[in-house]
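for the record, two folds in this file. i put them one after another cuz i was lazy. first one right below, seq on top, structure tokens after. the second one comes after a little note so u can tell where it starts
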Amino acid sequence: FTPGYLARENLTSSLSVNWDADDFVITSITGYNDLEIEDLTDDDYEARAIHETLSITDQTEFSQELRLTSTGENRFRWMIGGYYYNLDSTITTDGRNVGEGAALATALAAFGLPFIGNGSLTSVANEKTENYAAFGQLQFDVTAQLTATFSGRYSHETKTVNAVDTAAGAPSTTFEDSATFTEFVPNVSLDFQVTE
């Protein structure tokens, strides 16, 4: 019998609301996800209890989109909107000697000898992502058969990570980093219908 288990809980939800005004429609789309995973792995790959790793993931996501869209059959049509996204994820990994592995490591340490194999290590990694975006689209019927479309999307995203590793009998080590990305994507198109 090899010990271990995998437990997973995932909540995914979304809400979409449309509100009709006189000349446009307001659309709101909200999303929320919550994920929890607990995974215990016997990573010595034998029946004896020597070393195991427990990994716990706690992750939440939130998103919100808001759009305003023109209505009617006018030659000039438009749509503008904004978007927000947030991700917060923490992964805790606890790998340690257990059973016979822990007893052997303790006995060797009493004589100042190292334990050959996987030692005890705890790692906590936190990742955050935040994204803002604005977008829009303009459509104009040049003729009854020709339509011009101009659209664009600007996005700004920041990612940060913080990781702390702690090994038995050693000082903790920390890794931190962040990056920011910005992008603007324009688009121009012409649509011609051969027949009306």
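(here's the note) second protein begins now
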Amino acid sequence: ITVQPVRTEEGNLLCSGKVIYTWTFNFDGVAPISRSQVWTIENSSLPHFTVPQDLAVSCDESTEVANTGYPANIETYCGTHATITYNDIRINGSCTSNYQLQRTWTAVDRCGNVIEQDQRITVKDTEAPVFSIEPTQIVNLDCDDQYGRLPSSHVEFQDNCSSNNAITFVINIGQKYDVECLNRFQSDWTYTIRDE
């Protein structure tokens, strides 16, 4: 006797479920006899991907994915697409422009299997601020002129990562007098700019 089984399905066979094959045998004078075979399907295998490498960037560079890398070799057990997301946690450093991002990449397949991997992005400020308008090198004054004429208001400076109001501006003044005429002297001004 050859009997073809009847197939039934339970659940989501893409992830987990059952396939049931039932054979029913009919004989004269007796009740039908049925036998079943159950195949249980379960996908608990984690997806896989290669996390972008750890790297260091300047504080004026972007930390967006386009600049710091996206996961590669994304695979799932059944060859289907995984959803990739990330979350950043900032770890502050010695100043606003020095910090680290702990970027956690998460891959989720269609069955809800999840794997996480971390990428560390170190952000550094390695450039000193610069004068955009330097102080006048030599200023000649009469003895009754005021120091307000000196060029502190004519100095401009900038930094690649800090705003101007975050830069420390220091003037050191040194004077050399003419012993024959105290109203004649040389004053050396040293301008120092320092970012945060």
